[in-house]
Design goal:
disordered C terminus, alpha+beta, two-stranded antiparallel sheet, GMP Synthetase, Chain A, domain 3, 4 helices, 18% strand
């Protein structure tokens, strides 16, 4: 559902992008967007990196800032352009976060491990 580790990405260039996206931190939560589970897909569209992502809520007040940061970080890797597709299907929920972040935030719950909750 969401990509939270490099092992989930086969293309080394996309792995590099995922590592760079870890530098984008949601300022309200203080956690990077990869570990938050906001990245749904990484791929290519006509040779351009394509990122399908979400926000924690459709009305996220820092959402535009996060999108700008995602674009900036990908361009820092030398790409002239990036396609960012924002989706809310499926809606984000805490089960999409990495287990490490759920533990750190104190919300590790047996129901979340299975995506229920």
């Amino acid at each position: 559902m969401s990509i939270t580790s490099e092992e989930e990405v086969r293309d080394e260039r996309l792995r590099e992008i995922l590592r760079k996206l870890r530098e984008v931190v949601d300022p309200e939560i203080g956690v990077n967007i990869v570990d938050l589970g906001l990245i749904y897909e990484l791929g290519w569209e006509g040779g351009v990196p394509k990122i399908v992502m979400t926000w924690t809520t459709p009305f996220c007040p820092v959402g535009p800032f996060i999108l700008d940061e995602v674009e900036r970080k990908v361009k820092e890797l030398g790409y002239e352009d990036v396609v960012i597709e924002l989706t809310f299907d499926p809606p984000w929920n805490p089960s999409m976060m990495s287990e490490e972040v759920r533990m750190r935030l104190g919300i590790l719950d047996e129901r979340l491990k299975g995506g229920e909750g």
